[in-house]
Amino acid sequence: MNRLRSRSIIGLMSILLLLLGLPAGLRAQDSLYTITGRVLDEKSEALLGASVSLLQSDGKLKTGAITAKDGAFHLKGIAAGSYTLRVSYVGYKTHTAPIHLTKQSLTLPAITLQAEGEVLEGVKVIGKTSDVVIKGDTIEFHAGNFTTNQGAVVADLIKKLPGASIDDNGNITINGKTVKQIMVDGKRFFEGDPKVAANNLPAEVVEKVQVLDRDSESARLSGFSDGNEETVINLTIKAGKKKGLFGTAYAGAGTSKRYEANLTLSRFADDNQFSIIGSLNNTNNAGFTDISQDGNQLGFMMGMGAGRRGNRGGGGMPRRDANGILTSRMLGGNLNQTLSSKLQLNANILGGRNTTNKITDSWQQNYLSTGSTTETGKSTERSDKDSYGANIRMEWKPDSLTEIIISPELRYGRSQGTYTSTTKTLEDATSTLINSSDLTQNTLQKNINGTLRLDGSRRLSAAGRTLTLSTRFGIEDETGEGKYLYNLFDRTSTTNQSVDQRIDSRTRSTSYQARLGWVEPLGKGYFTQLTYQIKGSQSNSSRDAFDPDATGAYTVHNATYSNEFRSEYLTHQAGIALKKKGKTYDVTAGVNLESSSISSYSVVGGITATPISRTTLNFSPTLRMSYKPQRGTELRLDYFGRSFAPTNEQLSPVQDVTNPLISYVGNQDLLPGFQHNLFGRFSKYWTKTQTSLSVFGRAQVVQNDIIQRSLYDVTTGKRTIDYTNVDGNASVGIGGFLTQTLPGKKFSIRVASFNDLARSNTYINGDKNRSLSLRLREELGLNYRVTGIDMTLKGGFGYYNASNTLASAVTPATKDYSLGYTTNITLPLGFAFEGEATYTTSRGYAAGYNQDQVLLNAGLSYSFLAGKKATIRLKGYDLLNSRRSIYQSITAMSSTIEESNTLGRYAMLHFIYRFDSFSGGGSKSDMKRQGPPGPPPF
Fold it and tell me: Which is nearest to 514 in space by CA: 576, 454, 579?
């Protein structure tokens, strides 16, 4: 069977290679030409950084460029045909013109852009541009309208954007979607890890922050969505940084032994980019995403205890420092290089270590069929997580009809740590002690994985007939070893129960995917696509438990808690879609038929269990609609379905008892699940009033969702959890933001709203509990900007409530209020002041966890040297030493509140130095131009 699958993948790849080898006589339009020209303003002065785009007849981008200092642009590698040329620049009207390219290169006459809007003589207007501009499916924030402090990084800028948030793990969310990638001037920057750009690039070099949904390579090559798009941020760099070497270095030392240092060095030249980033700090700035992130809470053993397998979710507003105190070190490099007109290269390499020191007080109420219990505890964790990774992306266009993308990636991670905890459980009705326990774990985990992706397309006719092929192959090897010791006393026993054990584990897995697509033009703007996809994975895991012998060495094999387990997952999907593209709309509708199968078997105590296989068949429509009746207005609607497989932990039938109070048992009878996802968005920008509105909604319904079932022994306080499939889990969300520049252009209003309603199911002691939860988050801000002064007043409200069908599962509503004020004032003689004050109050939490706190940060900086390249800053953080880190999680089984240690009050003295060395005739004065140097639409 595996050979048959391998032959299928090889066969699909052979088709693509065969097409690439077609005789030259069958390759029409192989000759490529160049379009050149210049862009000027009304005074016939060159415009540096204007965006030049060449659009095909179907509206898709063919190629693009950014004008140089003399206003010149060069569009290369273009086949003969009819196109539309579009030139845009902030503050000027967009220029469009038809272009007909015959079988020779073309030099255009100078293009003059006309200014739009009015100019106020004798008045320096700060914030002339609006906070947000909506261009089609791209939301564009003008970074200069969101003032950040000296030495701020991109993450500090993103936090100020309407509709954006960054959680305690550094994950960026904008308009309800998680950002998967940050790009720089349209180029990939440390592919797959947005934390690198967010937490290391200086905010002051950014001109604009563009947010858009990027199609997968397969969808981009075919023009048909495959439901695998991702939300990305593109940072455009200020005009003066286009050519030459530039960067920022800073170092800081503070009280409480706090320190931080960072170096960002970049060289941009035309389409080529090279960057080196290094950082070192113990102020909770994780400069990268470590590969052992899943090993947090100490990897393979802690992932099995204390309910860590469950998804965290629930009420309350996100809290900073929820992961204790983090020390981070990293060094990496990123390269974008145009090797020729046909070959482009992107590569990056990164290495680093994150060290976590975390102390947590916890409170958890466990729901029962009748009554409830409360568990309180304290834990400490120290872990070191090393990560190393590299990837390469090569984009090859051998001719105007063919494109091939090859992307290999390799990552290695190592995590080592110690975890200790003490807990006790009381019966709520009588306050009787049910149990008490203490636990110590020491673990070591290693992980190495590699991925190879190949995407290709071949246009077979000028009308748009296209063949696409996308393949992916991945391997992963994870090993773990650890020792754990626990003592448990419960009211049913007269003596303590003790366990001392070592566990060795290993998991090896492979995954593969191949997708073949055929696009056929039908005429009059209609296209159809046929697709076939095969996707599968195989995982082999082993677990060996050892008890100590008489000498204390762990040599006695414990067969009861040891096992071998293997699972295979395979899906076949066939689909057909119809696409209609008009002047103001683009609609794609289709249907997919997907067969999913899963098989598994286990070996426990040397006995092989009977293999189990399950197959499901799912039918789902697909829909994507984009309607743009006018510039700055878009209505978008997307629907797609996707299957998912249970994990080995959910399937493995061997009981895991590494935690004295909770044990897990897998279920080999689990079926694959299937998600139905719907997303909609309406965006509009009014140029005259500088008003931006974006409203989004989403919905998800899950078939055969995988949930936990809980069996709780109220006499001992022990819980046993297994897994089952259930229908009925669903969620809906609606939100958006509004920004409005007020008359006079000194004030602007920013409003944001995020609201979610979720329904989830579980079983407690055989009784089904259905939970319905509502989460609201509302924000309102007022910004004031004049020369030298930037002030923002911002209020927030968070609400969470959940109702349960079990009468004993009662959770009070929680409410979080916040009022914040930030100010940045430029003073004479190079001085500047920055201040932040935030008042928060919380209600509805368990006793001792409601809070009223005032957070104060303040700093004074002095900039000197030519161009103010150097800055000294003294800043105090949490001046009242009042910060608390509280996190609430509510599920259908329990309600949990955790409070972790924070950085506390400290002061830090920074030295910041900005350096640049421009080439190609560029100068420092380039940075003073108002226009953005950003990339053409992509």
Answer: 454
